[in-house]
Amino acid sequence: MSEPMIPLSIAVLTISDTRNEETDRSGQALVERLTAAGHVLHEKRIVPDDVYRIRAVVAGWIADPETQVILTTGGTGFTGRDSTPEAVSVLLDKQIEGFGELFRHLSWQEIGSSTVQSRCLGGLANATVVFCLPGSTGACRTAWDGILAEQLDSRHKPCNFANLVIPERGQHV
């Protein structure tokens, strides 16, 4: 990779009724990985698992031209308050169908059949790429290391999501 990587502006949202900045290991793992890869943390927040509060934060970031990528962690399971897919899917212009499939394939090797309980998703909205990840730190590492590190790297061939959100690349329309 002889060309330089173009850093992306990435927002991280932890969705949890119990975590705070001191106990949010999943959000912190994402921040550590994205900054180690050369990207810029745009903002990090924690909100309770509430459809409307999640939707408000994600919609605000989608509308913000400075935010190129949104990573959420938490709320993708099947318990009573898990509502991230319901909150975010209606905001997406296009869903990335293969993201959840690939994540569950990678996760299968780590947690077996329990991976079917992950309702993680990805999509595009207003020239912003959005990935909703499970709340476990291991799942966040799996998603970043196995998918996102390459797909958010502007040098990755034959294609990547970075080039869809970098305006000067001309592919974001």
Automatic annotation (TrEMBL):
<protein>
    <recommendedName>
        <fullName>Molybdenum cofactor biosynthesis protein B</fullName>
    </recommendedName>
</protein>
<comment type="pathway">
    <text>Cofactor biosynthesis; molybdopterin biosynthesis.</text>
</comment>
<feature type="domain" description="MoaB/Mog">
    <location>
        <begin position="11"/>
        <end position="155"/>
    </location>
</feature>
<dbReference type="InterPro" id="IPR008284">
    <property type="entry name" value="MoCF_biosynth_CS"/>
</dbReference>
<dbReference type="Pfam" id="PF00994">
    <property type="entry name" value="MoCF_biosynth"/>
</dbReference>
<keyword id="KW-0501">Molybdenum cofactor biosynthesis</keyword>
<dbReference type="InterPro" id="IPR001453">
    <property type="entry name" value="MoaB/Mog_dom"/>
</dbReference>
<dbReference type="InterPro" id="IPR013484">
    <property type="entry name" value="MoaB_proteobac"/>
</dbReference>
<comment type="function">
    <text>May be involved in the biosynthesis of molybdopterin.</text>
</comment>
<dbReference type="InterPro" id="IPR036425">
    <property type="entry name" value="MoaB/Mog-like_dom_sf"/>
</dbReference>
<dbReference type="InterPro" id="IPR012245">
    <property type="entry name" value="MoaB"/>
</dbReference>
<comment type="similarity">
    <text>Belongs to the MoaB/Mog family.</text>
</comment>
